[in-house]
Amino acid sequence: MLMINVLMINLLILAPQLLELVTHQPPWTDRTPSLVSPIDLSAWANTVLTITAGLAGIERALTFRHHRLLDAETDGNES
Fold first, then answer.
1. N-term to C-term CA, the chain
2. Are 61 and 71 a contacting pair, CB within 8 Å?
3. Longest CA–CA separation in the chain, Å
4. What integer pLDDT is reported at residue 2 of this predicted model?
5. Which of 10, 14, 11, 18 is nearest to 35 (CA)?
């Protein structure tokens, strides 16, 4: 359960920063307005969050855990 919380928190914190980075690139600036993320973390904090997200994802993959919110696209697709 801890790793699911880590993934959700990382998604909420890192996604707006990633969108800001993408929308400031030249191909996107002509088409869409640039997004300014309300979250501005230091480089070391972003690095720590990215590493914890990677480790949490690896832990989930290795233990084959399923969560209905994180795995919504695979619900009902039995193979």
1. 26
2. no
3. 44
4. 76
5. 18
Q: Which two tokens stand for residue 26?
A: 């030249």
Burial of 13 (0-12, 13-18, 19+ CB in 10 A): middle
Helices (H), 24-76: 26-29, 43-63
Q: State pTM to two decimals.
A: 0.61
Instruction: Give the C-alpha separation, 62 to 58, whole Å.
Output: 6
Of 12, 14, 2, the C-alpha closest to 63 is 2
Choose between 63 and 45: higher pLDDT.
Answer: 45
Q: What is the structure's pLDDT at 72?
A: 67
